[in-house]
Amino acid sequence: MPVPPEDILDFCRLNMSERDAERLVGWIAWRTGRPQALAGSGDPVQRLERAVSAWIDDDQRAALLQWLVNREERGEPLYPR
Hints:
Distance between the termini: 27 Å
Shape: globular
Number of helices: 4
Number of domains: 1
Helix content: 55-70%
Order of helices and strands: HHHH
Number of strands: 0
């Protein structure tokens, strides 16, 4: 089932700090082989929006959202270490 970028962004706005959002942008950039700077300027949530909208597909967004939800339920950080 397709996951729109807004679902990930809404979850992140409710559950993570801007610093953690920026870390997640960096991780997505690394996983997709893109320079983190390509996420553009702006606050971390705007940069995260660019990353989840343009850099990953529906299946990857679904997997990312499930991964975030699972980590939140376990009380783990919402960014990869």
